[in-house]
Design a protein that fits this description.
With 216 residues, this protein is mainly alpha-helical. The protein is elongated.
């Protein structure tokens, strides 16, 4: 059949990104367990796509440490590795430290309010043992500083390594330690509102660096 000339076609970059995000999330939330073998043809059927974007996504996931890929053989979900998680955590903490340092000088009252609102939602989710809600609110809070930092390299590093740290976040937000994060957020917001970039950067670093390095 003839293709209408107005048809924009499929944005292949968006397709690749969507496949990557869905596979990444399935690993982080435990849908695919550590050590589980991932077959590209089965994943393609599950996602309703061709095998090409699945293979590309698996390569990206391997770069971030979420899977171990052996070309021509198999791809498996990475085991819960203490050193790998610790290394990723340290990098993520450093990126959030940099984000705070760069963002605080341009922070507006509206931005501070957005951070406070996110932390209220975070506290409510932690109190209700709603790990998914806590993760969403935590992302929204820290995203304010990352957005204002306007540093593409920083964003790229966070996108690559934050998923590996997410399993440690799940451990914290599902325990009493999650309540400590509420207090850390309050202090971060207070320092941001006061315009103290260096102190805010230090708290941002500690907030991420104090995450456990592996599930226990």
């Amino acid at each position: 059949m003839p293709i209408p000339p107005s048809d924009p076609g499929v944005d292949r970059s968006l397709l690749r990104d969507d496949v990557y995000r869905r596979l990444r999330n399935a690993i982080v939330d435990g849908t695919f367990a550590p050590g589980e073998q991932l077959r590209d043809h089965e994943l393609a059927v599950w996602l309703g796509v061709s095998r090409t974007p699945v293979r590309e996504a698996l390569l990206r996931l391997a770069q971030g440490g979420l899977v171990v890929a052996q070309p021509g053989r198999s791809t498996v979900v990475s085991p819960l590795d203490v050193r790998g998680t610790r290394d990723a955590r340290d990098v993520v903490a450093a990126m959030h430290e940099l984000a705070a340092r760069e963002a605080v000088p341009t922070l507006s009252d509206t931005d501070v309010t957005a951070m406070r609102d996110a932390n209220r939602r975070f506290a409510a989710a932690v109190a209700a043992d709603d790990v998914e809600g806590a993760l969403r609110a935590d992302d929204e809070l820290h995203a304010v500083l990352v957005r204002l930092a306007d540093n593409r390299a920083l964003e790229t590093v966070l996108e690559l390594f934050t998923p590996l740290v997410r399993r440690a976040e799940r451990l914290r937000f599902g325990s009493q330690d999650g309540r400590a994060s509420v207090t850390q957020h309050d202090e971060l917001i207070r320092l941001c509102a006061a315009g103290d970039a260096e102190a805010a950067a230090a708290v941002a670093y500690d907030t991420w660096h104090s995450l456990p390095s592996a599930e226990g």
